[in-house]
């Protein structure tokens, strides 16, 4: 503790020199404050020592500085101050609750606890619906060079889980502080559909914005006859697109481009009409939301993804080309794009469809992206799509962004199934009763009859339900009901308490499972 305290007194910043020293310092501190202190959380900054401690399952913030001094950092945090006799001398120790004001003070004091941009580095989206997954997510990405997006939630998911954008960011901040992860992380305001959505997320410091213009995509264009396509084309919002039908025809009809993968991309009148009829209004909507974002944050202060993954029909190469070319023409800058892929990307289970066909289309999507600056191709509903990762990694490498969320919730349930079987049984039966209604807004195909009722299984068979296709989907799509039922009285509080009690087991499960998502992308790195 002596050396670390010297760092603190000298106004240096950083962690203890090595894990052994961190453990000793945490142990000494723990004895005096009467709580477990997370060794990785120890940090020296601005003349004070910071750490996070745990009493029972309650976490609490510690800020300590030599007695008789009052560093500027001291007034930033809320909490009770005590004079304590540390092995290194008398110190003032502030103990504060895990509240938004202290999370904001942490981000100001320790910049690594605030989200940042990806800057083109390899990345993976790790949504966390419970707010307790960050330590496990960090375990999985540490040392890989990947920037994890630890705060990632759509407005829809926040509504379903009764969380605010602020909470989503704060939970990541606390988790990053706990683990001392200093390599940087991102915050993805996912699937934003309106300027209102944007404003709520921009107000609390999200760094990455995923615009979803899916409501403006016309899936009927796929099968429409040429005459109908022409009508749809003529009826596009040409003012918002800042061009005319004639200009669009001059630009794209008759286009023949050679792609980096050696394949040719051609567009005639009908192909243009189809692409524009399907995606023209979505392009206009995306440009409008992008400009709103630039107005709110300034162009240099956020990164953008465009996602049409939650739409009915696959994005063809000419359609991808049209969308990218039009967005570029309208001045939109984006770092990743999520097409609607061929086959089925259902929730929480592996890819369903023809892998060879998927691989060919993926290579073409990558080649189109290269024409427009080489943005990443984003795989949404990326949870558990193990069979496509090999090909995605082989062709795309660091230009693939995999987005996961529900799979971490399922690992939480796996942890509970193993440690508190009674609670899991209740959740399982509740999920079975909710599936019919809750599946409505998801792409899933589970057969409820194949999911056993809780009383049909012995305790030791419960965790393996999380390896079964139908049970995974049933448990996956009912998360909103589970977490918000009776304002959280039904399950939420008990579930969170269980995960806090077994936090190491939960982190371990996440490490193992998310590790499988990252591993294919690390080969030959
Ligand atoms: Zn998505």
Give the oligomeric state: single chain
Ends apart, CA distance between termini: 38 Å
Helix count from the secondary structure assignment: 20
- Whole-number tally of structural domains: 3
Q: Determine the CATH superfamily of the largest domain.
A: Aldolase class I
Hetero groups: zinc ion
- Write out the strand line-up for the largest beta sheet, numbering strands in chain order: 7-8-9-10-13-14-15-16
Radius of gyration: 25 Å
Q: Structural class per helix/strand content?
A: alpha/beta
- Main sheet attributes: strand count, strand direction, barrel closure: 8 strands, parallel, barrel
- At CATH level 2, the architecture of the largest domain is Alpha-Beta Barrel
Helix coverage percent of residues?
40-55%
Question: Could you explain the architecture of this structure?
Answer:
The chain has 525 residues and is an alpha/beta fold. It has 3 domains: 2-109, no CATH class; 116-217 and 300-405, Alpha-Beta Barrel (TIM Barrel), CATH 3.20.20.70; 407-516, no CATH class. It is 46% helix and 16% strand. It has helices at 2-9, 19-33, 100-109, 134-141, 155-161, 165-179, 195-202, 226-234, 238-241, 245-252, 269-297, 317-329, 355-371, 386-396, 406-419, 421-438, 469-477, 479-484, 492-501, 503-522, and strands spanning 36-37, 43-45, 48-55, 58-66, 80-86, 89-96, 123-126, 147-154, 186-192, 208-211, 255-258, 264-267, 303-307, 336-338, 376-379, 400-404. An 8-stranded parallel beta barrel has the order 7-8-9-10-13-14-15-16, surrounded by 8 helices. A hairpin with a 2-residue loop joins β2 and β3. α3 crosses α6 (165-179), α12 packs parallel to α13 (355-371) and α13 (355-371) packs parallel to α14 (386-396). The model has no long low-confidence stretch (mean pLDDT 96). Bound molecules: zinc ion (ZN). Zinc ion binds at residues 191, 307, 309-310, 380.
């Amino acid at each position: 503790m002596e050396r670390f305290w010297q760092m603190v007194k000298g106004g240096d910043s950083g962690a203890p020199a090595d894990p052994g020293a961190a453990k000793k310092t945490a142990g000494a501190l723990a004895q005096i404050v009467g709580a477990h202190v997370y060794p990785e959380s120890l940090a020296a900054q601005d003349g004070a020592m910071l750490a996070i401690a745990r009493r029972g399952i309650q976490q609490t913030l510690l800020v300590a500085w030599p007695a008789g001094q009052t560093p500027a950092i001291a007034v930033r945090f809320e909490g009770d101050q005590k004079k304590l006799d540390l092995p290194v001398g008398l110190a003032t120790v502030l103990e504060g609750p895990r509240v938004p004001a202290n999370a904001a003070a942490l981000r100001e004091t320790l910049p690594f606890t605030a989200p940042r941009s990806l800057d083109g580095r390899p990345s993976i989206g790790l949504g966390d619906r419970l707010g307790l997954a960050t330590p496990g997510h960090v375990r999985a990405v540490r040392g890989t060079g990947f920037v994890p997006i630890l705060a990632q939630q759509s407005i829809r998911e926040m509504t379903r889980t009764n969380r605010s954008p602020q909470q989503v960011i704060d939970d990541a901040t606390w988790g990053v502080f706990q683990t001392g992860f200093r390599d940087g992380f991102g915050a993805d305001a996912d699937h934003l559909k309106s300027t209102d959505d944007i404003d709520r997320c921009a107000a609390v410091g999200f760094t990455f914005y995923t615009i979803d213009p899916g409501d403006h995509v016309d899936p009927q264009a796929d099968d429409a006859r040429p005459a109908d396509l022409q009508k749809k084309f003529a009826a596009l919002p040409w003012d918002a697109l800042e061009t005319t039908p004639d200009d669009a025809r001059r630009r794209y009809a008759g286009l023949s481009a050679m792609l980096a993968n050696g394949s040719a991309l051609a567009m005639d009148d009908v192909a243009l009409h189809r692409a524009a009829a399907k995606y023209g209004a979505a392009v206009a909507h995306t440009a409008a939301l992008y400009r709103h974002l630039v107005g709110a944050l300034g162009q240099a202060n956020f990164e953008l993804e465009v996602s049409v993954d939650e739409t009915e029909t696959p994005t063809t190469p000419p359609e991808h080309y049209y969308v990218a070319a039009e967005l570029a023409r309208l001045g939109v800058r984006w770092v990743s794009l999520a097409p609607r892929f061929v086959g089925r990307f259902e929730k929480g289970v592996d890819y369903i469809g023809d892998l060879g066909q998927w691989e060919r289309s993926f290579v073409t999507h990558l080649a189109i992206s290269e024409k427009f600056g080489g943005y990443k191709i984003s795989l949404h509903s990326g949870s558990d799509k193990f069979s496509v990762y090999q090909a995605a990694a082989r062709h795309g490498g660091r230009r693939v962004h995999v987005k996961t969320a529900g799979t971490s919730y399922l690992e939480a349930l796996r942890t509970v199934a193993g440690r508190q079987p009674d609670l899991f049984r209740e959740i399982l039966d509740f999920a079975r009763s909710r599936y019919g209604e809750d599946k409505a807004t998801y792409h899933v195909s589970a057969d409820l009859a194949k999911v056993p009722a809780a009383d049909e299984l012995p305790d030791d068979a419960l965790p393996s339900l999380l390896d079964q296709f139908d049970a995974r989907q049933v448990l996956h799509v009912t998360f909103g009901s589970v977490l918000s039922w009776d304002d959280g009285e039904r399950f939420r509080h008990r579930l969170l308490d269980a995960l806090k009690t077994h936090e190491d087991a939960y982190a371990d499960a996440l490490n193992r499972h998310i590790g499988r998502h990252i591993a294919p992308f690390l080969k030959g790195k």
